[in-house]
Design a protein that fits this description.
By secondary structure, the protein is mainly alpha-helical. The chain is built from four helices and no strands. The protein has one domain: de novo design (two linked rop proteins) (Up-down Bundle). α2 runs antiparallel to α3. Helices cover 78% and strands 0% of the residues.
Length: 125
């Protein structure tokens, strides 16, 4: 399966595009600090998710655990940006947060699935 066909990748791609659009509207002082960090972090998440299928089966659970930590860091940065009113509207931030929440849930489902596979269970189809 190509990474472009994975739901988690498609959602991360949409989040990356949305964050890019939102950062363009940040105030100048926030655009080059928090905006740059958000862009970098979300792009790294996208690149990382794109490599999921390149991993050996035995490595996929560890990969998802590492991705969980990266997603947590990104959630913290998003919350900080909202608290500092970097986003032009609550709606923009909330839409990004919804997509991020969806990615977190998909990652958790993948983690459970890969852990079952590593324990000898059969993964759901």
């Amino acid at each position: 399966m190509s990474y472009q066909n994975m739901n988690i990748y498609r959602t991360a791609f949409q989040l990356t595009v949305h964050v890019e659009q939102c950062v363009r509207k940040f105030h100048k002082c926030d655009k080059y600090t928090f905006g740059s960090e958000l862009r970098m972090m979300v792009t790294e998440l996208l690149y990382k998710i794109a490599t999921l299928n390149d991993r050996e089966k035995s490595e996929k659970a560890k990969f998802c655990e590492d991705l969980r930590q990266d997603l947590n860091r990104f959630q913290i940065k998003m919350a900080l940006c909202e608290e500092l009113n970097c986003f032009d509207s609550y709606k923009s931030w909330f839409h990004a947060s919804e997509m991020l929440h969806d990615i977190v849930e998909q990652n958790e489902r993948l983690l459970r699935c890969f852990n079952r596979q590593n324990q000898g269970g059969i993964a759901p189809q």
